[in-house]
Specification:
about 210 residues, iron, rSAM, queuosine biosynthesis, TIM Barrel, alpha/beta, 7-carboxy-7-deazaguanine synthase, 7 helices, nine-stranded mixed sheet
Amino acid sequence: MNEQEVNALVERGEMLPLMEDFYTIQGEGFHKGTAAYFIRIGGCDVGCHWCDVKESWNAKLHPPTGVDQIVEKALKSSKTIVVTGGEPLTWNMEPLTSRLKARGAKIHIETSGAYPMTGTWDWICLSPKKIKLPTPEIYEVADELKVIVFNKHDFQFAEEQAAKVNRNCILYLQPEWSNREKMMPLIVDYVMQNPQWKVSLQTHKYLNIP
């Protein structure tokens, strides 16, 4: 298959720049503590300075992989699939999710919402970033809003984002890992004063698992 053919398949979402995929325990948000198979798609231009997977940003570093191959490998481990990145919505997610759904999988996505929604999802975790804000339509369908707190201004940003999501969306504040010791007491105090919010932790890092 030549480069032009590969690029055409990537454009349609039939191939995706797969960075890594692995079976582990979900560490964050509503489903923390549950087993799931993670599919990490390369490519992201949001560019958060504190991102802990900067190696995912350049899609060219991650080989285009056929969706059927990704699906077959994932379903050997779990029927709960988490698609993350990078920013997975950079790409057309419909081919991947339609094949997973046809095989009975429950599919979650973790996204900044910076690109239009594609694909069919059972759970949508919206983690908005100031650098590139979500598209309007994702606020209506988000199941959880997870705002990363790096500094005090992020509380204001969190409230601005919470005002846009649907009434059933679960609200989480999560300390940025490198600044967690400074921000966690502030998050605890904030949640106690504003109990519509919950605390999310990167528990997988405490468990020393991927």
